[in-house]
Design goal:
The complex is a heterodimer of chains A (about 475) and B (about 600). Helices cover about 75% and strands about 0% of the residues of chain A. Chain A is mainly alpha-helical and about 475 residues long. Chain B is an alpha/beta fold and about 600 residues long. Chain B contains 17 helices and 24 strands. In chain B, the strands form eight sheets. In chain B, strands 5-2-1-9-20 form a five-stranded parallel sheet, with helices on one face. Chain B has a four-stranded parallel sheet with strand order 13-12-11-17. In chain B, strands 6-7-8 form a three-stranded antiparallel sheet, with no helix packed on it. Classes of the chains: A mainly alpha (about 475), B alpha/beta (about 600).
Chain lengths: ~475, ~600
């Protein structure tokens, strides 16, 4: 097994270092087509769109193509880089440099349609295209692609997510198919909902099968994918299918803000379900094989991660508590009418922090090779829990209903910082525990090889995910609120 | 990202552990150069990238200083990679979001003696700063990567400082993998976590630690044999484990010589293990008091194989009795004699009694009248280690469940089909010997002072007097409690504590520090006497000679809970727990696994 890994590594390294010849041209071509499409959608001048697209595609082909080692990785890199391009051009950085910064938010809101356009017309096709090219060019280091596993796990996860989400949504005030015209038949609505859920799940499995490794990253990828699907589905495809005009304005986005939160939560459910099915698959068919036996069994890992996670979560909770108190969130955990920071609220906060810390330990272990990675995953974790906690579960548990409106999100923005701080501190503390333990493990050379296999590889598109998911997860509530 | 990165091979770990002085200086010098280099990269890249901050924050020089500070922090924490522009752009760009929150929204207002501006409206007003921070982060990432590539071109690649591999200077060899030996190895591993100049080797005849408190349950078919054994290789991480039998110890050359395999012949098959410190933790064996017939006909009760043989013997006797027409012979086949009324004897008698009565239902030709479980003990009462009341309770309980007692009786001899007692004879085909133990016979070959049992005499620090570097603990050592002056009993709880003190003392001697003496107050004793029945006597801390006594179901739950917690290995605990749970719903297994005819 070690020899096979070594041969694959050599193959990967040589392919990785091969000069990029076709990619810049391919990127330019795809970008130009995307730019034309963008201009058509926004009813702008075709030439300017084509030029922007070509420049984007060329830059992507030159600088990002090495990271696009598969369609999923390419898509995430494309989405992240297209968002960054929007931030630079229409989003406001140039405005910041040239004009009055006070108008920047309005400027960004006015150009929200370009954000949608850049993501769907530039980032998506260029990223997918070069990602496909990358998959042919570079063998994956750590995981072979398994169609059956990707489709079965993704399809099951998507359907399960659709089922859970559908039951939840249909009992509330939000439409099941946001952005779609209202159908006369409820059964048809349900059918389309599940068909879309299945499709999203299968696509998720095929695209990200080789990138997602555990529950935590699956949730992160699910969050990013959920944001992407909000752009793709309710904002774009559904109106087109309903023969309605395309409306990418910030007002329309704001009206569909609840659907954004819904897509994010669906993405999280999808991620967890996918990870569960995938892990069961791996456990049943791969790890059960004695030839693939690892030195340490999963039981010991889980207990250790739970213990470290609880401690790390407690420390994170203590660190973020001043912010939670100052923003008025902490008293609310004691009850909807509570405005006082009492012992009960503090104890509940710390218990919840420890419990959520345990989930970090279970979901994100083996993701961080370094402290910086840990902090980045911690931020994403904090963002996930902001959508899950104050936006969804807390009002659900206290009042029986969640409020996903842009206004509600605006009101909860202050606690977002507290969640980000909590996530980062928890993740960093967990990493310190893990680091200390790994040092002692590495006395045995077998462990160092195993740790290399278990750690996220350096060619991972995780940084692109961090940029796309973290940025849009924070910016969209501000922009659309 | 992260200079504080996980080491990924065991040679890297050597960088983190103690090194020679010159290697330490060399690596310190290299580290300082590296930090200086990273700081320089951070300053330059932060300064250039802070253009974005200056445009968004509009604090002029403060924006520049802020950008430089963050640039230095990012550069130090993010290890340089080669041409990772995309990664750095994305990762550092993502960094901009939390930095915006922490600095623009929280820190700057606080420093201006205002409340953090984290309401929705205020955060919207900070949107320009948000864009600026993201762009700053992206620029920082790209520029930092560029600077790293330039630095690599001019100053060479960044690589962790190389240090010579650490050589082993001291070797600690432990003979025996029981409670004492394994615990010593565990303690040494924990205390030597960062010190790779000291090697630890453990030699044992089997490759697992046997959890003897649960051995009776294996004999009684309540537990699977392997579930109470913990593999030494998986438990000990940095200890070299050798499965072997010690042939001799060369004290002059400080070598342990292991016996060769039977399959190979010649002296070359024997292995030599050098040591600087040698620990004798060889345990004890059964003492047949010189009666060779007993040794020949009796079943031992020390090892896992012994327990398996006893279990299969019971089943074998039942199978034979089932087809036996002679009632006397049938009764003799179904008579099981246990010699010794201490903890081991009582527990195995209770376990066999439950097992034998339990499987009667599978043998319709046999009756409970034919079945006899007899415990023979030389003293007036069983369980001399416990108080009289508990011993009386245990005896009465066992009698009510069908165990017979022959007290104040000695076993004089045994032959096929019968056991001769001091006051009679019992027709039986099964005798289980638990009546005595003696330290490992290997100790006889050692030229050290021993007590009348044959255990090695040691001083207060558990060292063999007059022989530096030699130590002894556990059942094979005669240890005097430093506080009470009393001999320490050869039990597992004492062995575990002796091991902890021994590990400290060995390291103290290596490091030139004073060693400490051994003292331990027994926590108490527990004994299972039958189904859901046990006796427990727990010592009250800080109250001399005061004990808490429990009996019955509560004591049995206490026994199971305590020993389950002490069983090494989570996996073993789960397996034993599952065995106990299955036992609640299904009868005990009567499958014969080995032939003991």
């Amino acid at each position: 097994m070690a020899e096979m890994e070594s041969a694959t590594n050599v193959q990967f390294e040589s392919a990785f270092r091969r000069p990029l010849r076709i990619e810049p041209f391919l990127g330019s071509a795809l970008g130009t087509l995307g730019g034309l499409l963008l201009s058509a959608a926004l009813r702008n001048e075709l030439l300017s769109g084509a030029l922007v697209g070509m420049a984007f595609g060329l830059a992507f082909g030159l600088f990002f193509a090495r990271r696009a080692i598969g369609p999923g990785a390419g898509l995430i890199c494309g989405l992240g880089s297209s968002f960054f391009l929007w931030l630079l051009l229409p989003g406001g950085f140039l405005t910041l440099c040239i004009r009055n910064p006070g108008l920047m938010l309005q400027h960004a809101q006015a150009h929200f349609s370009e954000l949608v356009g850049y993501v769907l017309c530039l980032g998506m096709p260029v990223g997918l295209g070069l990602g496909l090219r990358g998959s042919l060019r570079t063998p994956r280091r750590n995981r072979e692609f398994a169609w059956g596993r990707a489709i079965v796990a993704g399809g099951f996860a998507g359907t399960l997510g659709g089922f859970v989400f559908g039951r939840w949504i249909s009992s509330g005030a939000y439409p099941l198919l946001a952005g779609f015209r209202e159908l006369d038949s409820h059964s048809l609505t349900i059918f389309i909902h599940f068909a879309v859920a299945l499709l999203i799940g299968v696509v998720f499995g095929i695209l990200f099968h080789q990138d997602v490794r555990g529950y935590g990253p699956c949730m992160g990828w699910g969050l990013g994918f959920g944001i992407f699907w909000w752009f793709f589905g309710p904002l774009t495809v559904f109106p087109l299918l309903s023969k309605m005009p395309l409306d990418w304005s910030s007002e329309h986005g704001s009206a569909l803000f609840g659907s954004l939160v819904g897509h994010i939560l669906y993405g999280l459910i999808l991620g967890v379900a996918y990870a569960t099915v995938d892990k069961v698959w791996v456990r049943l068919f791969i790890q059960s094989d004695p030839l693939n036996r690892e030195i340490e069994g999963p039981g010991v890992h889980i207990l250790r991660s739970l213990g470290w996670g609880a401690t790390a979560g407690l420390i994170g909770g203590l660190t973020s508590m001043p912010v939670m108190i100052a923003t008025g969130v902490l008293p609310k955990v004691a009850g909807p009418d509570s405005n006082v920071v009492g012992l009960r609220a503090v104890l509940i906060h710390l218990c919840v922090s420890a419990t959520i810390g345990m989930t970090y330990g279970l979901l994100f272990r083996n993701e961080s090779a370094a402290s910086g990675d840990a902090i980045a995953w911690g931020w994403l974790f904090g963002l996930i829990w902001w959508y899950l906690g104050p936006m969804t579960l807390l009002p659900l548990s206290l009042t029986g209903a969640s409020d996903w409106t842009a206004k509600a999100a605006s009101g909860l923005l202050p606690s977002l910082l507290g969640h980000l701080i909590y996530g980062a501190v928890t993740a960093l503390t967990f990493f310190m525990f893990d680091y200390r333990y790994t040092r002692s493990l590495l006395l045995d050379p077998r462990f160092s090889a195993r740790e290399l296999r278990r750690l996220r590889p350096k060619e991972s598109p995780a940084p692109a995910l961090w940029l796309f998911a973290l940025s849009l997860g924070v910016i969209l509530p501000i922009l659309l609120g | 990202m992260g200079t504080f990165s996980r080491p990924l091979n065991h040679t890297d770990v050597g960088i983190l552990g103690p090194r020679s002085n010159s290697a330490r200086k060399y690596s310190r010098g290299k580290s300082i150069n590296l930090v200086f280099r990273q700081c320089s990269v951070g300053i330059l890249s932060g300064a250039v990238a802070s253009i974005a901050l200056t445009a968004s924050l509009r604090y002029g020089l403060w924006s520049l200083l802020l950008g430089i500070s963050i640039g230095v922090a990012y550069s130090i924490t993010a290890p340089p990679g080669r041409r990772a522009y995309a990664d750095n752009l994305m990762a550092a760009g993502a960094l901009g979001i939390p930095l915006w929150g922490l600095i623009s929204v929280v820190a700057i207002p606080l420093l201006s003696r205002q409340m953090p501006e984290w309401s929705a409206e205020q955060m919207r007003q900070h949107f320009p700063a948000l864009v600026g921070w993201v762009v700053y982060g992206a620029l920082l990432g790209i520029i930092k990567q560029g600077m790293d590539d330039i630095a690599e071109h001019f100053f060479g690649a960044h690589s962790p400082p190389e240090t010579p591999a650490v050589s082993i200077k001291k070797r600690i060899v432990i003979l025996g993998g029981g409670f004492a030996g394994m615990r010593t190895a565990e303690c040494l591993e924990r205390k030597l976590r960062g010190d790779f100049s000291t090697g630890i080797t453990l030699v044992n005849e089997t490759n697992a630690l046997l959890f003897t408190p649960m051995l009776a349950e294996v004999a009684g078919s309540s537990l699977e044999p392997s579930h109470i054994s913990t593999p030494l290789r998986t438990t000990l991480r940095r200890t070299e484990f050798i499965r072997g039998v010690v042939a001799e110890v060369d004290l002059g050359r400080r070598l342990v010589i292991l016996r060769g395999d039977e399959a190979t012949s010649g002296a070359s098959a024997r292995r030599h293990v050098p040591y600087d410190h040698l620990v004798f933790a060889l345990g004890s064996t059964s003492n047949y008091l010189g009666m060779t017939n007993l040794e020949k006909f009796a079943f031992n009760f020390k090892t896992l194989l012994d327990a398996i043989r006893i279990r299969n013997r019971v089943i074998e006797m039942f199978e034979r009795a089932d087809r036996e027409s002679d009632p006397n012979l049938r009764s003799a086949l179904l008579t099981f004699v246990i010699a010794g009324g201490g903890f081991a004897g009582v527990e195995v008698a209770g376990a066999l009694n439950d097992f034998a009565h339990g499987i009667l239902a599978d043998y319709p030709n046999l009756s409970s009248h034919d079945l006899n479980i007899i415990l023979v003990h030389s003293r007036e009462r069983i369980l001399p280690e416990l108080s009289e009341s508990l011993a009386t309770f245990a005896q009465e309980k066992m009698q009510s469940r069908g165990v017979s007692f022959r007290l104040s009786t000695r076993i004089l001899d045994a032959h096929h089909g019968a056991v001769l007692l001091s006051d009679g004879k019992i027709q039986t085909h099964t005798l289980v010997w638990t009546a005595g133990s003696t330290p490992s016979p290997f100790l006889k070959s050692l030229p050290f002072e021993k007590d009348r049992r044959g255990a090695l005499l040691v001083d207060g620090s558990l060292a063999v007097p007059g022989h530096p570097g030699l130590w002894a603990i556990g059942d094979c050592a005669a240890i005097i409690d430093a506080a009470t002056g009393q001999p320490c009993p050869p039990t597992a709880q004492f062995a575990l504590r002796e091991a902890e003190v021994l590990a400290d003392n060995i390291l103290a001697q290596i490091r030139g520090r004073p060693s400490r003496t051994f003292h331990f107050n027994s926590l108490g004793a527990l004994c299972v006497v039958g189904h859901q029945t046990a006796c427990a006597e727990l010592n009250v801390p800080f109250a001399r000679r005061k004990t808490l006594r429990f009996s019955g179901l509560f004591a049995w739950l206490l026994w199971r809970g305590i020993y389950l917690a002490k069983l090494p290995g989570l996996e073993r605990k789960i397996r034993v727990l599952m065995d106990w749970t299955i036992e609640l719903f299904f009868p005990r297994d009567i499958v014969q696994t080995i032939d003991v005819s």
